[in-house]
Structures are given as structure tokens and as C-alpha cells.
Design goal:
Number of domains: 1
Number of helices: 6
Mean pLDDT: 87
Order of helices and strands: HHHHHH
Number of strands: 0
Strand content: under 5%
Keywords: Membrane, Transmembrane, Transmembrane helix
Largest sheet: none
Helix content: over 70%
């Protein structure tokens, strides 16, 4: 009977840890996804802050705002949808890395580094196999 109770307690703790891990990873992945979705909608509706529009125009991407907006929305949606979260993760990593390179080259604060870090932490908690091939 004692063995059964100890086994039950151990299993319950494992389930609680897995549940917490799933919740935390979902929140960590949702933050960059929401940033992508919001930024994409703002680019499509021309409500992006003037400083962002000016920076992208100076970098040579001013005429591609609509394409960037559509791509951002697509990547955010892929990241949130469970069956496509892996490809969404890879595309979001590329998107934020490109944004980071623009920020660094334009002497802007590297905000994208924060979002790519949050994204990678969330995906690591959700699916370690993407990093270690397990």
C-alpha cells in the first residue's frame, strides 16, 4: 500500500511539472507570435509608428511593407498552430534574426534579441527534440 501511495504521489508530481512546463512554454511562444501578428496587422493597415516606417524606408524596405506584414502574420499564425509550430519556429527565428541585423546595423536598440530569446526558451521547453534530435 505504501508503494502504491508513493508511486501515485510521484506520478502526480510528474504530471504537475509537465503541465506547468506546457503552460510556460505556450506563454513564451505566444509572446513573439503576438508581436509578429500585431506588427503584421500594423504594417498592412498603415498604422506602424512613423519611426519604424522611416527606419525601414532608409534601410531599403519601405516598398515592401505589405509583403513584410503578410509574412509576419503568416509566421505568427504558423507559430501558434500546433501542427505547424516547428516550421513557424524556424521562420520566426529567421524573421527576428533579420530584424536584429537591421537593428544592429542601424544603431537601434536590439529589441528583436529579446523576442528571439523568448521564442527559443519557449520552444526548448516545448520540444527539446528540435535542439538535440531526441
Amino acid at each position: 500500500m505504501v508503494t502504491f501511495v508513493l508511486t501515485y504521489i510521484a506520478i502526480k508530481k510528474i504530471i504537475m511539472v509537465q503541465k506547468r512546463k506546457r503552460i510556460i512554454s505556450t506563454i513564451l511562444i505566444a509572446i513573439p507570435a503576438l508581436v509578429l501578428l500585431t506588427g503584421g496587422i500594423m504594417k498592412l493597415t498603415h498604422t506602424e509608428p512613423e519611426t519604424v516606417v522611416q527606419f525601414l524606408t532608409e534601410a531599403g524596405f519601405g516598398s515592401y511593407m505589405q509583403v513584410l506584414g503578410l509574412g509576419s502574420i503568416l509566421i505568427g499564425a504558423l507559430l501558434l498552430y500546433p501542427e505547424t509550430h516547428k516550421i513557424g519556429f524556424l521562420l520566426a527565428s529567421c524573421y527576428f534574426a533579420a530584424a536584429l541585423s537591421l537593428e544592429i546595423s542601424g544603431a537601434q536598440p536590439p529589441v528583436s534579441a529579446l523576442f528571439i530569446t523568448i521564442l527559443w526558451l519557449g520552444m526548448f521547453l516545448k520540444n527539446k527534440g528540435m535542439f538535440f534530435g531526441v
